[in-house]
Amino acid sequence: MSDAVWTPRFALSDGLRAAGLWYGGTALALALASAALVVGDLRAVAVLAVPVAVIAAGGLLLVLPLPRPVAVAAATVVMTAGATAALVVLARSAAPPASTAAFPLPPLKIAMLAFGVNAGRRRAPLIAGVAITAVTETAAGLVGPALGVPWAFDLPATAGLALVALASSGFLVGGRRTAVARRASRTAAEQDVLARTRAIARSRAAAVVHDTVLGDLAALAAIGAGPLPPAAAARVRSTLDLLASPGWADPAAPPDAVGGPVLAAIARAEDPDFSVRLDGELAALRGLDGAVEGALAAAIEQCLTNARIHAGVEGADVTVLADRDGLTVMVADAGAGFDPDAVDPDRLGLSTAVVARVEAVGGSVRVFARPGVGTTVLLAVPKAAGP
Amino acid sequence: MNRDTLAAREPLLLGAPAPVLAGGGAALALVLAAAAALLGRRELAAPGLEIVALVVLAVAGVAAVLLASPFRAPFTAGAHAAVLGLVLLAVVLDAAAQDGRNAVVADDWGPMVLPVFLLVLATLRPPREVLLGGVLAAAASSAAVAALSPEPLRGVAAVLTGVLPPAIAATALGATTLRALRRGGARAVTRSDAASVQEEAVARLEAEAIPLLAAVEDAGTITAAQAERARAIAAGLRAALVADLARGWLADAGFRVDDPDGYAERMTAAQRTALRTTVASLPLADFERPGLASVRGQDRDAVLELALPVAARPRRTRVAPLVPLLRSAFARADVRIGDEQVSVRVELTVPR
After folding, report:
1. Shortest Cα distance, chain B CAs vs residue A142, angstroms
2. What is the largest CA-CA distance in chain A?
3. Contact call for residues B122 and B130 (beta carbons, < 8 A)
4. B87-100: per-residue pLDDT in tens?
5. Helix, strand or coil, per DSSP, at residue A150
6. What pLDDT is stored for residue A297 in this prediction?
7. How does residue B186 score in pLDDT terms, banded at 50, 70 and 90?
8. Does the distance separating the beta carbons of A236 and B217 come in below 8 Å?
9. In A62-123, which ranges are continuous DSSP H helix?
10. Going by C-beta distance under 8 Å and a sequence separation of 6 or more, which residues neighbour residue A264?
11. 3-state SS class at B297
12. Are residues B227 and A107, on separate chains, in Cβ contact within 8 Å?
């Protein structure tokens, strides 16, 4: 099972297994406690604990990693032996039951059916339940009358079997009815992630085209007729080389999404030896006030510059988190870190270029850093500049 | 919607059995009660009261079926109280109908039908509430038996043994499944589509821009015509880029979109996935162009309506599971089924 792809069905299997064990376990415990109360023969009840334990052991066989038919057969035999032994003990007690369907025998049978829920998936619990009921009732029909306890139709145990049938059918039919929708849901979730990465890649591609091709075309239009200046020629050559290179629209590289200045700042902070991984709710950058966006962009760029120069790492993560009042951008690196209480003078950039800028627009900055662990800076800004 | 219930957490897998369990459970409970009443008719002191008890039980079953309908999702705490309250009333009336003559409580139908309803409720309400309901049910039916049975001790033992285990089991089902869902729920999809986006962008540029840039770079000079051409290409390219970036996920999914304030772009992943699932689960007339999406709102609140032309009127059972799914993601959601069109209306509040 460890190699299988996890689906909610595994969670349901866990839940049904727990329900079966709790139902069976508590039914056995309460049946034993009730027997002590109503039978009044404590010696018989003490002896009854043994067959009850045998039934529990039989139930536990169904949760062992055995082939299902083997487990069901073994559990049926062991649990039936336990139930039959319980009948014998009660028949020889001071207050023998009036029939094989008299209290406290039904809860023992219901416990067996509850354990049978762990027989497997789909119809397996119902098949196991029918097998357990048939074998147990046959044994009771043979043994009971011989001990002076006549066999009787056990309506509560039948109700227990019907409950197992209902649960099996309910989850089976309900699952079938939604099979199409569940497949669609899995595909939809994948499509959504894909669409999101596509949107980021599209933004990134648009930004690259804007900064390169559009700029070049505008420059050519401005030059008009004549020889190409060396700088313009170099720029056009660089653009053509870039467009021929692989992966320039990949959002794993510095993506440029909707938040122009912020994402441009991230792009500026990068170099061939330092990459930035951008993630989170990038769409939230769209609604920022111009002043806030400018301050945030400058602060992020300074944080990334600090990381590139001081942290000794090849990259950093920038995560955008939207909340009710604004957004928080987390700039994190797993580099050298530092002791915030003994800030190096080189880190004055943090207080001036970062804290001052963000606080000027009504935001706040929190720095978490430890030597050797890394640095995380949380930049929280409102949507619009505060007082 | 309360996300602490199985039906809300996984509406398509764990919410779907609820109507089946409610319908089947109501029928089963009534059959069991009728059979028990018939088999134990000698213990009936007031047959008329027993009939009233059976009628109340039937009403409880009908209430469970109606209230557990996906079209009425979510199943509220009030609905829980109403269904369980009716069942308990029926159980108490059954005990009263056997007043003084109930020699064997173990064959009463109360301890038989209460587990059925506890199973029905297990997926619809949070585990703690299911446990509380089960314990209250055990206490109330025990009290009734203790007051009205000639053998109160044996009667209470039989009731507790019949009702407490399923109450605990229903709680374990909900709690364990929810815990496993939380543990295993984070499924990462790491596929990226950047390569195809890049190919599309390059294909667009190869039509005009790249040939022009390459020609100018090769020649080392630029003509007046090329300069003019560069201006025209730049204008067209800029317009195309703006249109590209303005296109949202609904347009990407093929919808005609009328969303002047861009609310759809501020939906959560769960909301987008619920709508995508709904669209993909219906027998649409054209999956490439599913229909019209229109969004209107004020401040942070908006209403989105999808008009989805269908090839054939979908069956209610096919649409039913989608309603709780939508309601698990949106503040309100309704689906209307027509012969030619399915209309989806959802209300949402977007982040500030």
Report:
1. 23
2. 118
3. yes
4. 999 999 998 898 87
5. coil
6. 86
7. very low
8. yes
9. 68-91, 105-115
10. A207, A256, A297
11. strand
12. no
Q: What is the mean pLDDT of chain B?
A: 87
Task: Single out the residue of B217, B105, B225 nearest to residue B154, CA to CA.
Answer: B105
Q: Kindly give the residue spans of alpha helices, DSSP state H, lying in chain A.
A: 8-39, 42-61, 68-91, 105-115, 124-146, 155-177, 179-209, 215-223, 230-244, 260-269, 290-306, 348-349, 357-360
| Closest to B142 measured CA to CA, from A69, A34, A346 | A34
CA distances in angstroms from B237 to A173, A266, B302, listed in the order given:
54, 24, 33
What does the pLDDT read at residue A228? Answer: 84
* Digit-coded pLDDT (tens) for A235-262: 888 888 888 877 666 644 443 334 567 7
CA dist., res. B254 & res. B22, Å (int): 38
d(CA B309, CA B287): 10
Answer whether A329's CB lies under 8 Å from A266's CB. no
> Which B residues, 242 through 261, put their C-beta within 8 Å of a C-beta on chain A?
244-245, 249, 252-253
Q: Which of B159, B191, B198, B210 to mutate to test the interface with A (most CBs of A within 10 A)?
A: B198
Classify residue B287 by its DSSP letter: S
pLDDT for A210 equals: 76
Residue type, A273: D
Q: What are the structure tokens assigned to A250, written together? A: 């990949």
How far apart, in whole angstroms, are the C-alpha atoms of residue A332 and residue A276?
10
Q: Residue B161 in contact with residue A4, Cβ under 8 Å?
A: no
Query: What is the CATH architecture of A256-387?
Result: 2-Layer Sandwich (3.30)
**CB B325, CB B277: distance < 8 Å:** yes
Chain centroid to CA A217: how far? 49
Alpha carbon B46 to its chain's center: 43
Tokens of A304: 């990334």
- For chain A, the structural domain boundaries read 8-177, 256-387
pLDDT under 70: residue ranges of chain A:
1-6, 197, 200, 204, 247-260, 270-273, 280-284, 286-287, 324, 342-349, 351-353, 385-387
CA distance B275 to B108: 48
| CA A347/CA A334 separation, integer angstroms | 17
Count the residues in chain A: 387
The first and second tokens of residue A373, run together, are 């662990």
